[in-house]
Each structure stands twice: as structure tokens, then as C-alpha cells.
Design brief:
- The protein has helices at 27-34, 43-56, 66-88, 114-117, 123-167, 172-190, 209-216, 222-236, 249-256, 315-322, and strands at 261-263, 266-269, 272-277, 280-285, 327-328, 332-335, 338-343, 346-351.
- It is an alpha+beta fold and 361 residues long.
- It has 3 domains: 5-99 and 112-120, Helix Hairpins; 173-290, no CATH class; 296-361, Beta-lactamase Inhibitory Protein, Chain:B, domain 1 (2-Layer Sandwich), CATH 3.30.1450.
- It has an 8-stranded antiparallel sheet with strand order 1-2-3-4-5-6-7-8.
- Strand 1 and strand 2 (266-269) form a beta hairpin.
- The longest helix is centred in the middle third of the chain and has 45 residues, at 123-167.
- The radius of gyration is 45 Å and the shape is rod-shaped.
- The relative contact order is 0.05.
- The model is unreliable at 93-98, 114-119 and 193-220 (pLDDT under 50).
């Protein structure tokens, strides 16, 4: 046997070529393994497998996942390098190594399996895809958890702020007014009422059972009347929401409770009265000493910077200039002992008392 100094200290690959790696494989076998092929692979099998793997590992398939995209780019570089080597070093340059034949017990020739000729995804591809599928569920749960946490934090901040501002005597009135105005604006823009009862008007001629009972009850003795009046005042001290036009009797009762008395389309509360028409608040007369709070909003836009009103001004313009009246009816606004009179929703005259009216002279 002739000694070959170039192979001294080197092992042979299973294909008969000199092994170029620590694993005992030559460069050609390493390239074939990169493509997932055996040493007997033909040039057509190499080309078909290469094209399939390029499609499988193309980075654009993993554009939504930066980590997988980087792994795909590295894998594609290995596939391209293996293919380039196999094209530059075709099979005829390696020693022909006979492949073991599979002989069945009966001695019949073995038919080539279709699975051997069809390129399949490597185990690494399947492992990456499985890991990607498993990682989806925790990511979705994490997003849902963050969303719920944000909602919970906002709810806590709202409740804390509402509790503080409502309990503070210096801010409770302004805070309640702001909430009611926001609620009113939402109802106007969305075209919905604040409560289901408001969408189903209750005829004012038929008072609620509690109101009817009060109306039919005979007048109590003077002492009892004083006690009832005191309790009614104490109850109204805690009434915070505004009464405004368009509320139903049920909504007024939910805010102010049972009236001290009721007659026809009126509810009386310790010197103040709420008037109804067609089942909705259409007017009021509020005692200055009463804790009942009322609010009117302009029904139509008014000119910016408007500071006075005159004959012919609309109710919306009077409200924008003078504010919510303590006396409100279809034909009259009252501000203390001053009155503004209307006809067809337009100012026709006024009577000025101790409360100054901002009229144009």
C-alpha cells in the first residue's frame, strides 16, 4: 500500500473522499446534508430541493417576526452556499461509493420510494414553526392583560377623582355641573336620551302612585306639616344633579324624591314647583332658598361674544347672556324679580327689578 502524505492524519468520509470536518464528512456530504439529501442525490434532486428550500426559508415569509426573519436569512445563506458548492463540484468528482441495497426477504427488487425523491421540510423548520405557533397564545394573553390593566387604572383614577371632587364643598357644584353638561352634550350628539324612561314619555296627567297618594291625602296637622317640611328640606340638601327641560316625572322623582305635594301637572317641593307638559318638564319656579338646582342649555348656536339681548332675541340668546332663569315657562323667563317675556320664541319685552338684565340700550 502506497503512503499518501496528503492524507496523513486525516480520516475518510463514508463516500470515500477525504473528510474535511471534525465530524468525518467531506465538503460535498456536508453540503448535501445542509439540503437534507443523501450522498447518492442526483443533480436534478439537488436543484429541485434547493428551489423548494429557498421558498420555505425566504425571509419575506417571516416579515412579521424579526427574530424568525434573521434566522431565515442565516439559513438561506447556508442553503445558497451548499448549492453553489454542489454546482461547482458535481458528483463525478467524488469516488463512487456503492450504496447498500435494500433487499426484501422474498428477494424481490426494491422499488424506489416516492418519499425519498420528494424534498421535505427539515426538522429545524418544523421546530421553528411549532415554536412560533406556541408563542402566539402568550402574546395575545399579554396584550389582553395590558388592555384590562389600563382600563382598571383609568376606572380607579376616575372613581378616586370623582369621590374627591364630589365630597369637596368648594368643587362639588362645579364638578357636578361639568358631568351633567358632558352627559347632555353626549346625548345631543348621539341622538339618545340619558335614560330609557325619557324615550317613553309618561303622560303627566297620570301622576305616579306616590304622587297620586300625596295628592289625595288630606292636609296634615300643623305640627306634622312642619316635621314633613323639615325632612323634605333635609332630603333635598343631598340632591346634586340638575333638573332640566325634557325630563320625565320618573327622572325628576329619581333625583328629588317624592314631592311635598302634587296637583295636576305640577310637583311642589318646599316652595318650588316643577311644571310638566306632555309628560316632560316644561317649566319651573324655584325658590331662591331652595337647594333644587336647574339648568337650561341653548337649543341653537349663538353669535360668539354675545353680551346683551334685545327685542327679537331668541330664548337661546337670552340663556347665553343671562344664564338659567329661576322662573321658566313657555312665555316667560324670570331672574329674581326681573322678567323677560316671549312670543313665538322671541323677546317682546322685559321688566327689570333688582336683578340687572343685560339688555341692549
Amino acid at each position: 500500500m502506497t503512503f499518501d502524505p496528503t492524507k496523513a492524519g486525516k480520516s475518510l468520509c463514508a463516500c470515500g473522499m477525504t473528510a474535511d470536518t471534525f465530524g468525518g464528512l467531506c465538503d460535498r456530504c456536508v453540503s448535501l446534508q445542509t439540503l437534507g439529501l443523501g450522498a447518492h442525490a442526483t443533480s436534478d434532486e439537488i436543484e429541485n430541493t434547493f428551489l423548494t428550500l429557498v421558498k420555505v426559508w425566504h425571509p419575506d415569509r417571516f416579515a412579521h417576526d424579526p427574530t424568525l426573519r434573521l434566522q431565515a436569512e442565516d439559513k438561506l445563506k447556508e442553503i445558497n452556499a451548499a448549492h453553489d458548492y454542489l454546482v461547482a463540484n458535481p458528483k463525478q468528482q467524488q469516488r463512487s461509493v456503492p450504496q447498500p441495497k435494500r433487499t426484501p426477504p422474498c428477494g424481490l427488487p426494491v422499488e424506489p420510494s416516492s418519499a425519498d425523491s420528494e424534498p421535505e421540510e427539515t426538522e429545524e423548520i418544523r421546530r421553528i414553526l411549532r415554536r412560533r405557533q406556541k408563542s402566539k397564545a402568550p402574546a395575545v394573553l399579554l396584550k389582553v392583560g395590558f388592555a384590562l390593566g389600563a382600563v382598571a387604572v383609568l376606572a380607579i383614577l376616575w372613581l378616586t377623582g370623582d369621590s374627591f371632587l364630589s365630597s369637596n364643598s368648594s368643587t362639588s357644584r362645579a364638578w357636578d355641573q361639568l358631568k351633567l353638561e358632558v352627559k347632555h352634550d353626549l346625548a345631543v350628539h348621539l341622538g339618545t336620551s340619558s335614560t330609557p324612561e325619557a324615550q317613553q314619555p309618561v303622560p303627566a296627567a297620570t301622576p305616579t302612585p306616590s304622587v297620586a297618594a300625596d295628592a289625595q291625602t288630606s292636609a296634615p296637622p300643623p305640627e306634622t306639616a312642619r316635621v314633613s317640611r323639615t325632612r323634605a328640606v333635609q332630603h333635598l340638601q343631598g340632591a346634586k344633579p340638575y333638573i332640566t327641560a325634557g325630563l320625565t316625572p320618573s327622572e325628576v322623582l329619581s333625583v328629588l324624591g317624592n314631592p311635598t305635594s302634587s296637583t295636576g301637572e305640577k310637583m311642589l317641593y318646599v316652595g318650588s314647583e316643577i311644571d310638566f307638559k306632555n309628560g316632560q318638564v316644561a317649566g319651573w319656579k324655584i325658590d331662591p332658598a331652595s337647594p333644587i338646582r336647574v339648568k337650561l342649555w341653548s337649543d341653537s348656536p349663538v353669535a360668539p361674544g354675545l353680551t346683551t339681548f334685545a327685542v327679537g332675541s331668541t330664548k337661546s340668546e337670552v340663556i347665553a347672556v343671562q344664564g338659567t332663569p329661576s322662573l321658566f315657562s313657555d312665555s316667560e323667563f324670570g331672574y329674581g324679580d326681573s322678567q323677560v317675556y316671549f312670543q313665538n320664541n322671541r323677546v317682546v319685552s322685559w321688566k327689570e327689578g333688582s336683578v340687572s338684565l343685560r339688555v341692549a340700550h
